[in-house]
Amino acid sequence: MDFLRPASWEEALAAKAEHPTAVPIAGGTDIMVEINFDHRRPEYLLDLNRIVELREWEVGEENVRLGA
Q1: Which of 18, 21, 29, 35 is the most buried (most CB within 10 A)?
Q2: Is the C-alpha dihedral spanning 27, 29, 35, 36 positive or negative?
Q3: What total number of domains does the chain contain?
Q4: Domain span at residue 15?
Q5: What is the pTM of this model?
């Protein structure tokens, strides 16, 4: 299993395009349970934790935008 760690949203999209079966993770709780119990073994894990845009949030007058 390969662990892909893009540093930007553009790199993440490029990695997903290059490896369409990559499983995106941000915390990994669900997928790690499946891996630990040998229920799933993806070829690639796509770690999204380094992507700043997914951690940003903002409050507007009429809406709230959460990066994730």
Answers
A1: 35
A2: positive
A3: 1
A4: 2-66
A5: 0.79
